[in-house]
Amino acid sequence: MKKKIAILGASYLQKPLIQKAKNLNIETHVFAWEQGAIAKDIADFFYPISILDKERILEKCNKIGIDGITTIGTDIAMPTVNYVASTLGLIGNTLESTLISTDKYEMRKALSSKNIPCPKYAFYNTPSFINKENLNFPLIVKPTDRSGSRGVTKVNSIEQTNIAIIKALDNSINKRVIIEEFIQSDREFSVEFISFYGVHHPLAITDKVTTREPYFVEIEHHQPAAISLDTRKRIFALTKDVLNALGILHGASHTELYLLDNGDLRVVESAGRMGGDLIGSHMVQLSTGFDFLKATLDVALNQFDFNRYVNDPVHKYSGVYYIIPKPGRITSITDNSEKYHEIVYSKALMEIGDHFDHTIDGADKRAGIIVYSSDVPKPIKDPNEVLKIETL
Fold first, then answer.
1. What would the pLDDT profile of 292-308 be if each residue is shown by its tens digit?
2. What architecture does CATH give domain 184-315?
3. Which CATH superfamily is domain 120-181 in?
4. Helix-then-strand count for the chain, H and E
């Protein structure tokens, strides 16, 4: 008899998970708003219900008799995932852990209480910052409950901070904002783990490239990170401490941190879900051979065994580029990916006639995306020649 899995979300982020489940002969029950649900057509069953409507999803999942529930690439679905799992006695993280790991302020408090190295911070829900906390500029202002650089701004004054608070509040679901001292470092990483009953397995460390200040939108990712073996070991050890501090016991996790010039590490945040931007859904398996999507499904279905995944590891390089053309109306899109043997995935995310604005945060549409797999690091010199998107 087929296992039944509930998956929250049907965007391009969740599409690989839905397809993987179908390939594994798992019956897929997908919940999402119909608008933008590009993966609904490949789902066995699709329900146009908001991923935030946990009561309706619980009711439906109970009638279906699901064997597990999960999502990838989005923080806002995690409270519903773990609420349904907890209520139905399925695999998931506790509601307390979910609250902490999906709210950057609660997360910062939990990490600081365990002496995890973090920046100094403060909480705000109104633009009333006067720096009574004596934070050192520059600062980073961001919503406590969003991912993908949404609503994030670097500021250098009290006036700029209050303007940034307004922007962050506009992007926040719960209207909560955290202000942190800016971490001075050019080396930013994300760390992917899979966990099952509190046993944490490290998978990969990703080099991250952003647009830098003031918005820090992610535009490139590369695996494995170009770091020493000692730094790799220290990052994995610190990440385990982070997961334990946040009570993340099950499933994929995505932790972000910085390496300082003096070799110290600083934790930015951690989420009890797979990294977005195709880091988890594509890059991990391309660079390591570990089937991260299958593992995520197996954990949710309470049938995960790490030893089944490590028999045939690979050691390659993989990466993601987002295509960021000049602002303007898109006049032509040319996909030259067939000319590059390293390219395994290429897709325009916008169409001719669409208007591409300045990219200021991860809520903005990127114009396109390409993924590579190679025996050498960073083989693509100009991603804009692979997927050429011209504007006027």
1. 999 999 999 999 999 98
2. 2-Layer Sandwich (3.30)
3. ATP-grasp fold, A domain (3.30.1490.20)
4. 10, 19
